[in-house]
Fold CASP-like protein.
Amino acid sequence: MSNPEAAFPEDPAKSSPPVTEVPPTDGAAGLGVSGIVRRWRRDDLVRRGSLALRGLALIFCLLSFLIMATNRHGGWENFDKYEEFRYLLAIAILAIMYTGFQALRHFFQIAAGIHMFQHPTSSLVDFSGDQVMAYLLMSAASAAVPKTNFFREGVDNLFTDSLAASISMAFLAFFCLAFSALISGYKLSTQSYI
C-alpha cells in the first residue's frame, strides 16, 4: 500500500513562514487613512486658529478704538488735537472693518461651508490683507508712542494712561494679525483647500 500522506502535498499554510505586516515608514505615513485623518485634523486646526486670531484682533482693535475715541478730557488732553492719535484711531477703524469682515467670512466658511471667493483668491486676499493691516497697525502704534512718552514725562494722568492702553491694544492686534498672516502664508504656500 502506498503512503496516503505522500499522495497529497504538504499544506502551504503550514510550510510557509507567517506573514507579518510592516508599519509604514515616515515617508509613506500620509498615504493611508490615518494620514488623511491627520491632514483633516490639521486643516481644521488651521481654520479654527485663523478664525480665533482674527476674532482676537477684532476685539483688540475695537478696544483700541473705544479707548482712544473716549479719551477727551478738555484743553490739551483731547486726542483729536494730535495727528498721531487721529492716525491710530483711523487705522483702528480700518482694522475693525477688515477683521470683522474676515472673521465673519471664516465663521460662515466653517459653520455653513459658504465660500465667498475661489480658493486661490481667498488665500491671496487673506495673506495680503493680513500683512497690510498688520503693517498699518504697527505703523500707527509706533507713531503714537513717542508723543505718549513725551506727555508721560511731564504728567501721568488718565489721559496718558488711556493713550498707553489704546496703543497697547493696537500692538496686541498687530501680533494677532501677524500670526494670522503666518497661517495665511502657510495656506497659500501649500494650496490646501482649507
